[in-house]
Amino acid sequence: GFPRTLGQAEALDRICELDLVISLNIPFETLKDRLSARWVHPASGRVYNMDFNPPHVQGVDDLTGEALVQREDDKPEAVAARLRKYKDAAKPVIELYKSRGILHSFSGTETNKIWPYVYTLLSSKIPPILSDEEN
């Protein structure tokens, strides 16, 4: 997400005024497991997830048959360190937006269960776009 640090939030304030900030609270273990299951095809950038979007043949790109790799920062130890660092850096950002009354937090582990709530919030804040026939 963005902004990730207080400095980034302050820079964003200089160019626009936010009226809505969404924070997704996903358990540490869920994030670590998902990121650690990510593998990529270096030449194309295609991303696979061994849990919910695996390649047809494990370790092999579906289109080229070339080997997939796990980025160093997606290995479990690196993911855990990244998440700890992110949590520490993001805490003041979360507090800033909470103090402004514009922070909306959603918790869960599954996109399809969180998304309807996020969609409802966004729908209440953004007017629908009407097609030419509806105008």
Can you tell me about this structure?
- The protein has 135 residues and is α+β, with helices and mostly antiparallel strands.
- It has helices at residues 6-15, 28-36, 76-99, 111-125; strands at residues 21-25, 38-40, 47-49, 103-107.
- 43% of the residues lie in helices and 12% in strands.
- It has one domain (6-100): Rossmann fold, CATH 3.40.50.300.
- The model has no long low-confidence stretch (mean pLDDT 92).
- The longest helix is centred in the middle third of the chain and has 24 residues, at 76-99.
- Strands 1-4 form a two-stranded parallel sheet.
- The chain has 4 helices and 4 strands, in the order H-E-H-E-E-H-E-H.
- Residues 38-73 form the Adenylate kinase active site lid domain.
- Belongs to the adenylate kinase family.
- InterPro entries: Adenylat/UMP-CMP_kin (IPR000850), Adenylate_kinase_lid-dom (IPR007862), ADK_active_lid_dom_sf (IPR036193), P-loop_NTPase (IPR027417).
- It comes from Aptenodytes forsteri.
- GO terms for molecular function: AMP kinase activity; ATP binding.
CATH class: Alpha Beta
CATH fold description: Rossmann fold
Write out the strand line-up for the largest beta sheet, numbering strands in chain order. 1-4
Terminal residue distance: 35 Å
Class by helix and strand content? Answer: alpha+beta
Helix content: 40-55%
Listing every helix as H and every strand as E from the N terminus to the C terminus, the arrangement reads HEHEEHEH
Per CATH, the architecture is: 3-Layer(aba) Sandwich
What is the assigned CATH homologous superfamily?
Answer: P-loop containing nucleotide triphosphate hydrolases
Strand content: 5-15%
- Calculate the mean pLDDT score and round it: 92
By oligomeric state, this entry counts as single chain
Number of helices: 4
Radius of gyration: 19 Å
Shape: globular
Largest sheet: 2 strands, parallel
> How many beta-strand elements?
4
Q: What is the number of independent domains?
A: 1
Q: Which stretches are poorly predicted, pLDDT < 50 over at least 5 residues? A: none
Family: Belongs to the adenylate kinase family.
GO molecular function: AMP kinase activity; ATP binding
Protein name: Adenylate kinase active site lid domain-containing protein
InterPro entries: Adenylat/UMP-CMP_kin (IPR000850), Adenylate_kinase_lid-dom (IPR007862), ADK_active_lid_dom_sf (IPR036193), P-loop_NTPase (IPR027417)
